[in-house]
Amino acid sequence: MGNGQSALDHATALDDPNNVPPLDDKTALALASRFDFTVAEIHYVHLSHARITWLAERDDWLARRTLRILFDAPAIKLEDMLSLAQWWHSAPATAKIQVIFGFLDVDGDEAISIPDLVTALSHLLGSSAKFEEGNEAVCMEKRLVGTVRYIGKIAEKDDGLIWLGLELKLPVGNTNGTLKKSKYFECAPKYGLFMPVSKCEQKSTYDWINAIFSSVHGKYPLLFTETGNVKPVDKAPTRITSAQFARAVGESDDVTAKFGQWFFPIPLRMGEPVPQTTRSGSAAT
């Protein structure tokens, strides 16, 4: 629509999706009447539409995948988002489950795998952007879990990357938190490990993966030991088919509702202010 498009153009021109002009009152009232929403809801979806488009144009993973799975299009109109909201609240549970499965099946091979969930959940939960000191991080390359003690660049590396300094539970690392003469954090000798942030995930991501597989197969695929190791569980399933997912989620109306409530805010979540780090050109990949 004309007004919504000009607002998006305005935000793009300023390179600031958080400065989107509101819809005029006449347009907002007309859309509220047409789609049976409140005017406040119309304004919120208007912001969501502008920001998801802005993010998709900048190759943001979550925005692009949302447009692909929910709309099968690289760009949408405001009316498309309003129609989706109407459909979602009235669609049968089986249809919603299919949409959620498609979103989580990242590689499109008709099954949800652990790598699929790592990719999808890391963006859904924002783990790649929200490491905090004191949280646990998983480095699957080394099958280790550590406590984050440092986040930032390392002068000695001179590679421009963001690194995590992890404190491990056993002396299987290669540092005490000091590199050459620079002290980044403090731990006992060999209890420290530096890893690029791109090779780590928050432990909460893997907790979600274990919970999803347990709900479907009744068994965790990954074991996290008290000594900070990550081990695949012997003979545990590592894939979830569409039928298995539909059966597990659809067995309980409560579970179906929870999945739906968790998933559907994805497009509308774009109505929240875009983080400064993304606005400055470091969008999630």
Description:
This protein has 285 residues and is α+β, with helices and mostly antiparallel strands. The chain has helices at residues 2-14, 25-35, 39-57, 61-71, 78-90, 93-104, 114-124, 203-217, 242-250, 253-263, 265-269, 276-279; strands at 111-113, 136-139, 144-152, 163-167, 178-179, 182-183, 192-196, 201-202, 222-224, 230-232, 239-241. A 5-stranded antiparallel β-sheet has the order 7-4-3-2-8. The protein has a two-stranded antiparallel ribbon with strand order 1-11. Strand 2 (136-139) and strand 3 form a beta hairpin. Helix 7 (114-124) crosses helix 8 (203-217). It is flat and about 65 Å long. Residues 1-14 and 274-285 have low confidence and may be disordered.
What keyword list fits this structure?
single chain, about 280 residues, alpha+beta, five-stranded antiparallel sheet, two-stranded antiparallel ribbon, flat
